[in-house]
Queue: 2 jobs
Job 1
Amino acid sequence: MEQPLVTLTTDFGRDSSYVGQMKGVLLSGCPGASIHDLSHSIRPQHVREAAIFLADTTPWFSADTLHVAVVDPGVGTSRRIVYVECDRQRYLAPDNGLLSRVLLKAPPTRVISLKNRKYWRSEVSNTFHGRDIFASVAAHLCLGLDPTGLGPEVDDLQTLDWAIPTTTDQQIVGEVICVDSFGNLLTNITVDQLVVRGPESERVVECQGRRITGVCNNYGNRTVGELIALFDSHLRLEIAVVNGNAAQQLDAREGTTVIVY
Amino acid sequence: MEQPLVTLTTDFGRDSSYVGQMKGVLLSGCPGASIHDLSHSIRPQHVREAAIFLADTTPWFSADTLHVAVVDPGVGTSRRIVYVECDRQRYLAPDNGLLSRVLLKAPPTRVISLKNRKYWRSEVSNTFHGRDIFASVAAHLCLGLDPTGLGPEVDDLQTLDWAIPTTTDQQIVGEVICVDSFGNLLTNITVDQLVVRGPESERVVECQGRRITGVCNNYGNRTVGELIALFDSHLRLEIAVVNGNAAQQLDAREGTTVIVY
Amino acid sequence: MEQPLVTLTTDFGRDSSYVGQMKGVLLSGCPGASIHDLSHSIRPQHVREAAIFLADTTPWFSADTLHVAVVDPGVGTSRRIVYVECDRQRYLAPDNGLLSRVLLKAPPTRVISLKNRKYWRSEVSNTFHGRDIFASVAAHLCLGLDPTGLGPEVDDLQTLDWAIPTTTDQQIVGEVICVDSFGNLLTNITVDQLVVRGPESERVVECQGRRITGVCNNYGNRTVGELIALFDSHLRLEIAVVNGNAAQQLDAREGTTVIVY
């Protein structure tokens, strides 16, 4: 039998004991699980950052991979935990908007509220559902449990608002939605919005008062230190400094306005 | 056959070449081993931090998991390396107190001093026993080697002193034993010590001159920025700031006094 | 069948979405691959650091392990991507000198330029060949693809210059080539260069104006805070502070001169 694939995304910190405990419970329940850490460095309680991360990363996995995502400021309150099937992937997550960007791409094909305590650890702490509910349920799913057993189907998932660029005849006004580990600025402006205005080489991109003429194809054809605009691997407009850090250089962050003329 | 489970805990730094070299030797010896990083971010040479980490994390793994722990300021001296069976788990560690908190829970059922060089790499460096002894021996154990072959049984493991809260009629005086990645303060005061004094909602917790009234059940029911006391997932008293960092806010660290009235 | 072993070394940052996307593509193509992260914390675009890292780490793996290395400032330009067999290991890397230190040990036994788009993802972005070429080709190799199919054999790999110590009757002048996670200074002076001058206990090592008499065998036999010289696990001269950080204490870095008398 193939090893069931599970990924983990949390804000616990990469080397925290919490991650190890989740893996212990998961592997105790399903020793054959193939576990892959996606990120444990989501900023603490930053549901929005995790939502972008999941939407960028999970679609690249094979069908039926189980993605366990625990960024959960409401742990121990009455917030729901849900099992979601969407776009051929499977998810376990708190119902706090964490999956709202995954769901922008396709509607969910199944949503179940985890109510059946049979598949939880027998003792459930108030502060660590990642171990006591998520990891335990994930082990059962890896062993082949039909998700129907987890609880009732529901249809009212929490969502988050995602800023949409405003477009006029003169310009597109968008914003930075994420700063990556290189300091590159990822925006909510996509290639199709931009190219309808004419050749990308003639577009002007403005951020923090700095103007960049032309959207180029890659980092490598420009000189070191140059401020450039390009399309990232998800076809979003990105602002970068060749071999440098655009976020620092422009003093830009999530929410900073980006305009395309 | 099931894949033998091995975990790694070191102070090498997550992305150091040393971790990769250990994995190379382990997988060369036992290609089917399933290796899981618990932490490589133990503060350098900080045996006490690693001891708490191991006691918190390893009990969640299935029986007979092999936990390889290398926080080893005495590498290359005559300090012993030991194989220990305790509470259904198996360990390889330097004999420097690293397992002393695991051993608080249960006495070891077997302790062997690694004297038999047959299972070490043929060349052993003076500075990297993690690769040349630990990883090599771990590979042999994963292949099914009877630990009896590793060396003689011994019974005088090194221990560390662990502060025990002092209890009077008026108060419990304990201390912070660990600061987690969120800045939460974990203490050596446990739920059973505290609740014998009456309802937890009426207890007063004092740390760095700040007083908190009542021990609550989780983070989610309080307001952002509030200083709270609660029980962590190991039923230790914990001091936290909702969506914030208690260690920074209170200027608290390992050893800081915590009093419960 | 044994699981094919793949290692990953990049400058993406450990928890970046880019690493997760590579794993997704690799596991989609070859679900049975056993993937091991070596490092994702190479300093951005720092080909030289990655070259040392790879040469230190990959030889410890079993024969035919596939090492995928993506530190690739030229992504999207006409720089080649190569498949290399060397010293029983297999590599996928950009042809930018990344393998030049591995190749110091042994000449390559096969070098192929990845020209055949058949084994790439059907859509290839300009900025993320790690996912669209490297991970896709790695999956095919894990499934048993004969590397001959990847493209034409070539023989003109890019190299980097590596400083070689200069030796006179009076002294050896070398330099720091890497600072590890403990702040230890690894140099390009090797044990065999040093011992021909007489007993290592009588050598004097100078760095940043500080002199150390004698090269010792390990960290553990000296006092805390002492500045020492020793041989690292690759038999290179190393400068360290016992339980401390030599790089900070000496204000030393890559390229800092080290002299042995």
Job 2
Amino acid sequence: MAIQKLAAEDLAAALSGLAGWTLDREGRSLHKVFKFRDFQEAFAFMARIALLAERKNHHPDWSNRYGTVDVTLSTHDAGGVTSLDIALATAMDEFAARLA
Amino acid sequence: MAIQKLAAEDLAAALSGLAGWTLDREGRSLHKVFKFRDFQEAFAFMARIALLAERKNHHPDWSNRYGTVDVTLSTHDAGGVTSLDIALATAMDEFAARLA
Amino acid sequence: MAIQKLAAEDLAAALSGLAGWTLDREGRSLHKVFKFRDFQEAFAFMARIALLAERKNHHPDWSNRYGTVDVTLSTHDAGGVTSLDIALATAMDEFAARLA
Amino acid sequence: MAIQKLAAEDLAAALSGLAGWTLDREGRSLHKVFKFRDFQEAFAFMARIALLAERKNHHPDWSNRYGTVDVTLSTHDAGGVTSLDIALATAMDEFAARLA
């Protein structure tokens, strides 16, 4: 069975455990802006998360401008936010906290 | 003296030597979408260009979604497109062509 | 069942399809030196292969000095060379050929 | 004037401020083994340092095996250890400490 998008209450519960992530208006994707001290740090963050994404075969949409990384997470096949997105968001937060 | 943005005719000449790059409406930035076969290739492209950007201390604004890398180049200090952007665009095209 | 190391004849057949890879004296690992034009290219190669390694959960032993990447492949759990190593060697050759 | 290798007393002073770095027998290079929790972390470390190396145009010799990164620093043109190596060693320690 394919992965299912989270029910509203499960999504709310997951979001309450994450800092700085917002849901888009239609509730289909998570968004956060990460700020790093410079490009080297921002790209090291991206390299670490790229490896994790490849391991999980679940990839972020992201943009980068110098020390800023703007992330959107969604599970295309499920048409919304799934446990894969919550896991990736959690890993991003954990790694970014160590870089800070 | 700080780097100057290219005069209109120089910018036009530079663009005529680049394939697939477009100028934004106000003529202040260059834009191109690169397509790669998968995330691994897209990120290898970004890693190579990140190193070049760091060497030159001139960085792209870019976003990535799986195999796609969407690039915007501009020189903030000059308020427009400079020879730094043309050089970065040229290097991106050269590397992307080899990956293709 | 865990992955098994290749039988001698299968390993010989696999090696005959690979250019520049040598077997260590005890037949337990594959080795090749890749030369790139500079550090940027060498590291882009490593980034691409790192992502593949993470996807496959099978990692190279490698060293890097400027444009050179020295690779050793072996499957620890099998005590020798397996189809995982042949697949990684093949992918490395394919990507390096495009960078050349 | 080209960069000069550090005098013995300056090298000793620099080393006393670095933890875990050893000098090779001939006093020409610095060496340290970094241990990370997994490959993803080790490669994120390498990506961050690769960008710094490219910015400074001074590159490490390093090898990687899963979560381990084994580093040797020397300045070829000077035939020994210079302030460039001390700066790179210091930056590696600082970043590795944050990842830990």
